[in-house]
Design goal:
133 residues, mainly alpha, 2 domains, two-stranded parallel ribbon, flat
Length: 133
């Protein structure tokens, strides 16, 4: 985190780390879903609903497999889906992205940073979620 590396190198390393972590989470989800004994045990337990974090789709997929309603417990959905779902405008010129640490009073360079974060979110979301498609 504190190393001063070139921007492009940091982007490539972040991409590789996200891709590796996503593959690990997908593998864990696949192992859960194909574990017939565990899935049968969950189905027989008679749960009324499933509480899950929508950041990763494994929870909703398991809930769908078990025919359970889903209750999300995150204050925002990943990839800006909360803004798309509610059709709330979120112009990057004055609405800071969550991870930018900017306030709503941004300098020009902070606005550029905010825009780069917004663009990279779409790319990283595709990397994380495309295997579930």
């Amino acid at each position: 985190v504190f190393e001063k590396k070139p921007f492009l190198q940091r982007v490539v390393e972040t991409y590789k780390r996200v891709k590796k972590d996503s593959a690990l989470l997908l593998s864990a989800c696949s192992h859960l879903l194909y574990n017939k004994e565990l899935m049968a045990s969950l189905a027989e337990s008679g749960f009324d609903a499933m509480l899950t974090d929508p950041f990763l789709p494994c929870g909703p997929i398991v809930a769908l497999r078990l025919a359970l309603p889903v209750v999300f417990f995150l204050n925002s959905l990943p990839c800006g889906l909360d803004f798309q779902g509610t059709r709330c405008p979120s112009p990057p010129s004055y609405v800071p992205r969550v991870l930018s640490l900017n306030s709503d009073h941004m300098t020009f360079l902070q606005r550029v940073k905010n825009m780069l974060i917004l663009v990279s979110e779409g790319f990283l979301c595709n990397v994380v979620y495309s295997p579930y498609g």
